[in-house]
Each structure stands twice: as C-alpha cells, then as structure tokens.
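So, can you check this record?

>
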Amino acid sequence: MAKRDPYAALRIKEFNIFLALRFVLVFAWSMQFIVVEWQVYSLTKDPLSLGLIGLMEIIPALGMALFAGHIVDQKEKRNLFLWIISLFSLISLGLFFISGDSITWSTNTILYAIYAFVFFGGLLRSFFGPTIFSLIALIVPKKVYPNAATWSSSTWQMASILGPAVGGFTINWIGIHLSLCIVFILVMVALILGTLISKKPVLNPKIGEPVLESLKEGVRFVFSTKAILGALSLDMIAVLFGGAVALLPVFAQDILKVGSEGFGILRAAPAVGAFLTMLITAYIPISRKAGLKLLVAVFGFGISIIVFGLSTIFWVSVVALFFSGVTDGVSMVIRQTILQLKTPDHMRGRVASVNTMFVGSSNELGAFESGLTAKLMGTVTAVVFGGSMTILTVLTTGIISPSFRKLDLESDLEAHEKSE
C-alpha cells in the first residue's frame, strides 16, 4: 500500500479557508462558553447552576437534532452555514449586552437571560455539526476524508485550547463584558471567511422527501451499521459520565483555589492533549485495529478523570486533564474516520445529527449529570463516580461486543483510494 500524504487535505485551498473559519468560530464559541460559566458561577456559587447551562443547551440540541439533519441534507451547505454563523452573532451580541455595567437587572433576571441565550445556542448547535460534517465531504475528495477529518478535528482542538485559555485570562484582565465583545468580533470574522467558500451541489437524490421518511431512513442506517452504532454508543456513555469539565469552576475557585487564570489552564489542558494526539495521528494513522484502540482510549479517559477528581494539587490536576485529552483525541479521530468512511454522501446530515444526539449532546447532558451528582454527592465524589462508570462501560462493551473489538478500517481506506 502506498504511503499516505499527511498533508493531503491541506493542499486544497478551500479546505484551508474552511479550517480558518472553523478555528475562529470554535475559538469564539469556546471562549464564550467559559466566560458564561464563570459569570454564572460567580452569580450563584451553586454547582447545579453550571449543570443547568448544559441542560439549557441539550434540550433544543436533542429536540431539533434529527430535523436539523434532514434540513442539512436538503439544503445547499455553504449558505446554510452562513445563516448559522449570522444567528450565532446575535446570541453573542445579546450576551455582551446583558453583561454590561449599565444593566440594572436582578441576579435572577440576568441568569434567566443567560439561560435563554444558551437555549437558542443549542438550537444552532443542532445544525452546526451536520453542516460542518457535510461541508467537509464536499470540499475534499473521498480518498483524503480521513486526513481531512484529522486536520479538521485538530483545528477544533487548537481553538478549544486557545479559546478557554484566552477567556480565562481576559476575564481577569478586562472583565466579562469586554471578553464577550471579543467573542462577537470573532464571530463576524468567521462570517466573512464563510463568504470565501463557494456554493456546493446538493447531492441528495430525494429533495422534497417527507420529513418522517427521511428521519426514519437516517436512524435505520445508523442502527444497522454496527461500526457507527458501537463507536457512538461508547463515546456517548463515556462523555455522559466523564463530564468533569463542567465542574472546573468549582475546582478552580473552591478546591484548587487558582482563580480565573488557573481556570483557563485547567479548561485548556484536555484540548492540548487532544490536539497533540491528532497531530501525531496525521503522520501515524490509527485505523488498524480501530475498535480495540477506541476501547483502550476510552478506558484511559476514565482513569484520567478519576485521578483529576482525587487530586488537590493544581499541576497534578492539569496533567490528569491533559491525558484525558490525549485519550479523547484518539477516540475522536477514530469516531470521525468511521463516520466519514461508512456514511453515504446523501445521508451525511442525518448521520451527523444522530452523532450529535449520541455524542455532541451528551457533553451538555454530562454537564447536567455532573452538576446534579455534585449537588447530591459532593464535587469530588461526583467526578470519581463518573470516571468509574466510564471504565465499567468500556469493560462491558469489550465483553459483549467481540466484533467491535476486531473492527479494522484499513480495507475501507484502501477501497476509497482505489475508487479515486
């Protein structure tokens, strides 16, 4: 087999524009999220209020996910993406407005307004993932899908590193209000970059198909494709119970006592680990024995979460979160490769929507689970419980699904290379 080019996707000009757009948008989104987390906890001093942020985002994200996938498969992707960014800019502008000193609302009113904006952000999230997933496949040829998925995920992780870190520092330097102003400016930059991508053809042969039939087809495909179902199920449970990141404001302020700057470092540590892992996988593909590697990665993620929960030393906590990112990076690359290789072009929106329901939304549901269990058990016990449940899930999956343990993606990669 010929050696694969680790920079294949980066040789496509429009893909580089797409990466720049995704970086700026994810940077803004993750920076906004950390600023909002800090503001909410500063207002309430209640870990459950952090969990409610996740709940407010997951309700619309789950409720709209399948319908969003149907819309994405029916519409032109570039213009749809521009609409999503435009609406996101309104949310950022609203959060900037209500954080100003001139606002004399009560604490509860400000809190409800924040939750409302987060709710509408969840509606956009339901469209964001399927649109990104579908757009990548229209920008690069099939033979470089895995490479494009790696670089796209790496860009997402890099933005996730810098967004929270910058957010943590700007909270300390210029305050919440001006931090949210920066977010709004970045979203507008992303909107301009989006106009540089050309319109794409709609590859769905069933334009105008009844919504119910379309949704049933997408769900049937996912549940009948064991590789996709196994990867999504494993990641969903792991993310659901390993949502310690949602409790980082509690650790930063009350346990480790490291302030907003330490909070930014803690928030960025997992993304640093994941980003470095993804850079390595661009050179060393992990498609061989992918199922076994995914199980090992999620097991390691659970161990890292337990260590973080038990730690009372700042740098030990940072290292534990770093390794949680390393293992999560392996998991993300394998999952994205499975989805890209196993999904037909005309169903990418719907399959990505199911992915959002399984994995993307479980981030927010995991945040709610962490906030609720922290309220009931205590913060440290809640995190250790989550890591333990993740490990138990991996062991159960490995035992009851030997076919998933043996999953290998090399033959799929070779078939795509020969088809080009």
